[in-house]
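Example 3.2
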Amino acid sequence: RDRLFAFYTGEHGEVLKSGKYYDGLWVIYSDGTLIASSNTSEGDIDGFYYDTNVKRVEFLGNATELNWTGFGANDLPNVEEIILSPAMTKLGNEAFKGLSKLKSINLEGVESIGSETFKGCSSLTKADMGAVKEIGDRAIEGCTSLADVSLYGKGGKIGYYTFKDCTSLKS
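Structure, written as tokens:
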């Protein structure tokens, strides 16, 4: 509830851009925060393209899946932090591909990570995937700063070349 209040009051500074998509809204604030809210089962967000001001992305609402590749380097090249809604359980293919400045993302509650989702996120240093049961092919390939990964227990699926070129990986 407090996070929704921040969305509507502009607690992150002046509103630079805003838009509507399907049943949701998105707002880009002057502090570099993009907040997107959706209540559909799939969080397809559209309407903003290539914005170098965005450093932080926060998802609100009840969307359980993020299936769009629009948060990659071609659209938001300077994103350093991503905060997912607690309802988000599935990240689609290439969702954050190429975000070379991405340092942190909360994966709490995420159960499925698609192919190439974090491929090329070379600044990502840690990934807690305790709830993840399925990781797609090449999902974390090229995350050269990734040193620590926490994985799930028995019975999960890890795709081909998932950790290829993760040269700093220690545990």
